[in-house]
Amino acid sequence: LMSLESALLYVVWILEVILILAHVIVTFVYERTLVKKKVLHPNLQLLLMLSPAPLIVYQATLYLHWILDQFVKVSDDMDKWLGVVMDTGLFGTAFNLFGFVFERLIATLLVRRYEFISARIPFISLSVIAVQWAMAVAFIAAYYADWITLLPNLIVVGVEWAISVVMFSALPTISRRSYDRAMRNSTLRYRNRYQSIENIRTALVRVTMIAFL
Predict the structure, then answer these.
(1) What is the CATH number of the domain that holds 67?
(2) For a tag site, which of 11, 46, 55, 59 has the least CB within 10 Å?
(3) Residue 79 vs residues 17, 52, 71, 75, 207: alpha-carbon distances, Å
């Protein structure tokens, strides 16, 4: 018979699975609702839809590892590779906010041209996602190769988040100033004013996503 301690561990693990799955589902549904209910640029749509991907990779690998441990003997090589994939997914979640900040920064700086940049194919978001995964793979590979310790990785994540939060908080103000300047300057086209309003609206929407990220 299963001991009380083992039974409690199973209950805790099941509750953890339920909570994490609920988090992923709520995040995905919320972002899917944003994409359907709001008119957003294709770059932002793709970032919204793929933002849960790193967490899904992490959780799927974690549960696969646990299931394999219960039924088969996991070799050292497989254990290492599962750990690499799991840590890469976990580390990739740390760069989610930076991707949104970068996309909004481009939209803020390129007010006149942003609506026409990758309107059909979201090159900006594809590039951001590629860089996000490349950075996660690079840092985790360096860590497993003993080129760096865990501390530099944590410092990088902390600095990246601090910069992202500061920039993200400042973007609505920057967009408002851009809009006010466009309103005072009759030589600026209506497109500038429209894009400035869109930047403000989208930036405010993204603030609500920080809790999920």
Answers:
(1) 1.20.1070.10
(2) 11
(3) 20, 24, 14, 6, 38
